[in-house]
């Protein structure tokens, strides 16, 4: 058998195998999204984002997001509601931004409108002062290569809901759009937002 025929047969065999194998799982491609009620908002989340019992009374809901691409730890999404405004939008976002070390920190703030209300979002990358242990102890662990997406979602007549997604930069990048679509927003329609000093 000639080499060209062998190569052609090998190519056909490899193509056939590629068609038979299932596509690789993507962080944003879970088959059946799940609707989750958190107070007055409804989140549409991938089935792989596992809900767990909130670890503090300040948390309305919390979810564990599977790590991607060799990351060692899963990410976490927490939903907070404090009643009414829960403090100013900028003050809350600035507080979350300050949970990252100033050196090497990269911050971008955006605003948009979702199906559930207007929102402002802070996208922060760098070294995160990750809380460990009980909140009253205020202990943290420096975690380089982290990313946070922090959202203040204003629900008309109800107040502000706070969504905080934290984890390794790679995992958060993989679910960046998923967070927006979970509450009916679109990353493509966001505009830059300037935090008030």
Q: Which key terms come to mind for this protein?
A:
Protein Transport Mog1p, Chain A, two-stranded antiparallel sheet, eight-stranded antiparallel beta sheet, 197 residues, globular, 20% helix, 4 helices
Walkthrough of the structure:
There is one protein chain. The protein has about 200 residues and is an alpha+beta fold. It has a single domain (about 25-190), classed as Mog1/PsbP, alpha/beta/alpha sandwich (Protein Transport Mog1p, Chain A, 3-Layer(aba) Sandwich), CATH 3.40.1000. Helices cover about 20% and strands about 40% of the residues. The chain has helices at about 5-20, 90-95, 170-175, 175-180, and strands at about 35-40, 40-45, 50, 60-65, 75-80, 105-115, 115-130, 140-155, 160-170, 190. The strands form two sheets. Strands 3-4-5-9-8-7-6-10 form an eight-stranded antiparallel sheet, sandwiched between helices. A two-stranded antiparallel ribbon has the order 1-2. Strand 3 (about 50) and strand 4 form a beta hairpin. About 30% of the residues are buried. The model is unreliable at about 15-30 (pLDDT under 50).
What would you say the CATH architecture is?
3-Layer(aba) Sandwich
- Note the run of SSEs as H and E: HEEEEEHEEEEHHE
Tally of helical runs: 4
Overall tally of structural domains: 1
Widest β-sheet, arrangement of strands: 3-4-5-9-8-7-6-10
Shape: globular
Helix content: 10-25%
Q: Using only CA atoms, what is the Rg? A: 21 Å
């Amino acid at each position: 058998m000639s080499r060209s025929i062998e190569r052609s047969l090998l190519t056909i065999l490899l193509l056939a195998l590629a068609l038979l194998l299932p596509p690789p799982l993507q962080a944003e491609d879970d088959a059946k999204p799940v609707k989750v009620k958190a107070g007055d908002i409804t989140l549409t989340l991938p089935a792989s984002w596992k809900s767990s019992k909130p670890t503090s009374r300040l948390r309305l809901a919390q979810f564990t997001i599977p790590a991607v691409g060799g990351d060692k730890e899963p990410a976490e999404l927490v939903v907070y509601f404090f009643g009414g405004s829960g403090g100013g939008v900028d003050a809350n976002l600035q507080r979350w931004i300050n949970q990252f070390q100033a050196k090497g920190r990269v911050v971008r703030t955006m605003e948009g409108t979702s199906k559930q209300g207007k929102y402002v979002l802070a996208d922060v990358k760098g070294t995160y002062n990750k809380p460990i242990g009980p909140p009253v102890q205020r202990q943290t662990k420096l975690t380089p290569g982290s990313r946070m997406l922090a959202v203040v979602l204003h629900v008309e007549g109800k107040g502000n809901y706070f969504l905080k997604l934290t984890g390794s930069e790679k995992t958060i990048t993989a679910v960046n759009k998923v967070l927006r679509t979970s509450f009916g927003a679109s990353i493509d329609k966001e505009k830059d937002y300037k935090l008030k000093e």
